[in-house]
Design goal:
By secondary structure, the protein is α/β, with parallel strands linked by helices. The protein contains nine helices and 16 strands. The chain folds into four domains: 56 residues, no CATH class; 68 residues, Nucleic acid-binding proteins (OB fold (Dihydrolipoamide Acetyltransferase, E2P), Beta Barrel); 157 residues, P-loop containing nucleotide triphosphate hydrolases (Rossmann fold, 3-Layer(aba) Sandwich); 57 residues, Ribonucleotide Reductase Protein R1, domain 1 (Orthogonal Bundle), CATH 1.10.40.50. Helix content is 19%, strand content 23%. The strands form four sheets. A six-stranded mixed β-sheet has the order 13-12-11-14-16-15, with helices on both faces. Strand 11, helix 2 and strand 12 form a beta-alpha-beta unit. The two termini are 33 Å apart. The structure holds guanosine-5'-triphosphate (GTP), magnesium ion and zinc ion.
């Protein structure tokens, strides 16, 4: 296993980060179904000598916390790249001129960000140290640093942050009229996450061909009314596909939404050359099957790029402090000042401007219900909402 690097407190200009380390430096726990003798932790280039741009110190071998001091110096020989996809421990990285690299992620980076499910994510700009190129094989490298993210789409449980994509301009929140059934509360959660992560959001309601009674169109109108750009699309009839393509042009976007709503289908319609894999929705459970398994960045012919992502099971937003939740519901923002109490939770208080607006039909009751639900989830008062899909129910 990798040796521990020790050092005194680092040099001037360093950034000190106190971090938890996984216990994986001792005997790794056995994974279910994997024979004992198999090492399942791929060791990589962690021991790239002892880098002078970082020092790690701990009180003792069994300490679970170490202090990592990242200096502001750029590691010698490191070059900047752009992450197109992350497949397990390998990231597909590209240089500005398009040269591809298959990079591993330096161990200390992985370990210290273990509370984040993905230390490196699609859309990241990273510094990596390229290795020697041999023959025609794709060049390799080791990612040593993730550059500051200007935006990020993420969800989080109490224990972990799941980063979905970084450095994108907008989230295209995709929902379907039916199959799987429309769940506005999940749209709301994506909108909160987009707002918290510094991204614009567009609400895209797909499978318009299934909207027989116009009820779904009314849901979409709910979001248009509070200022979100909205799109009604159908891959089956090509409705709205041109408008969607226009929305994406010249921007970086991430497609997010439940499994089976048609994210990959829509992207294939926007740019047929992509030929992304499409999955059936189970007719019995009306759930998707997790056809897309890794987030991937795709370049648009008209400029810009999009990230296709897999549908997710639960969408917790534990990284948002409960007091900040209201700020991510756009239609609450200009009303909260009118609540009687400065610390109003907008759940039960008298003279609450939000509750009054709901009663008057100015704020949609289901939007308020999502807010209340998120608030209570964050306080541990209700179980987490589950947006499970077909693959999950078979587990
Ligand atoms: N009726 C109808 N079906 C659609 C439409 N768009 C997609 N579908 C179907 O919906 C199913 C799921 O589509 P996908 O594109 O794989 O869904 P996804 O959102 O990418 O799902 P994951 O990759 O699992 O997250 C497929 O059977 C598609 O043919 C549409 O506009 N109308
Ligand atoms: Mg997909
Ligand atoms: Zn209030």
């Amino acid at each position: 296993m990798g040796k521990k690097k020790r050092g005194k407190s680092g040099g001037a200009g360093g950034r000190k980060v106190r971090v938890h380390f996984r216990r994986n430096r001792q005997a790794p726990p056995r994974q279910k179904g994997i024979p004992l003798h198999v090492t399942h932790e791929v060791d990589d280039h962690d021991d790239l000598a002892t880098p002078d741009w970082e020092t790690v110190s701990a009180k003792g071998d069994l300490s679970r916390k170490r202090t990592v001091i990242e200096s502001d110096n750029i590691p010698a020989g490191a070059i900047e790249g752009f992450v197109l996809a992350v497949r397990g421990l390998i990231a597909d990285v590209e240089l500005a001129d398009g040269t591809p690299y298959a990079c591993t992620i330096r161990r200390v980076l992985r370990t210290r960000r273990i509370e984040e499910r993905h230390p490196v994510v699609v859309g990241d700009r990273v510094l990596f140290i390229p290795s020697r190129v041999t023959g025609d094989a794709v060049a390799e490298g080791v990612i040593v640093r993730v550059l500051a993210r200007r935006s990020q789409l993420r969800r989080a449980t109490e224990r972990r942050t799941h980063l979905i994509a970084a450095n994108v301009d907008q989230v295209i929140v995709v929902a379907s009229v039916d199959l799987p059934p429309l769940k506005p509360s999940l749209i709301d959660r994506y909108l909160v996450s987009a707002s918290a992560g510094g991204m614009d959001a567009v609400v895209c309601l797909n499978k318009a061909d299934l909207d027989v009674d116009g009820r779904a169109a009314a849901v979409l109108e709910r979001y248009a009314r509070i200022g979100y750009p909205t799109l009604m699309t159908s891959v089956a009839t090509s409705t709205g596909v041109d408008a969607l393509r226009e929305r994406l042009r010249g921007k970086s976007s991430v497609f997010a939404g439940q499994s089976g709503v048609g994210k990959s289908s829509l992207l294939n319609a926007v740019q047929p050359g992509w030929d992304l894999r499409i999955g059936e929705v189970c007719m019995v459970t009306e759930k998707g099957r997790h056809t897309t398994t890794t987030a991937r960045l795709l370049k648009l012919d008209g400029g810009g790029y999009v990230v296709d992502t897999p549908g997710i099971r639960a969408f917790e937003l534990a990284m948002i402090p409960v007091s900040e939740l209201e700020a991510h519901f756009v239609e609450f923002a200009d009303r909260v000042a009118d609540c009687k109490f400065a610390n109003c939770t907008h759940i039960h208080e008298e003279d609450c401007a939000i509750r009054t607006a709901v009663a008057r039909g100015e704020i949609h009751p289901e939007r308020h219900a999502t807010y209340v639900r998120l608030f209570k989830e964050r306080c541990g008062l209700v179980p987490k909402e589950d947006y499970g899909d077909e693959a999950d129910s078979r587990r």
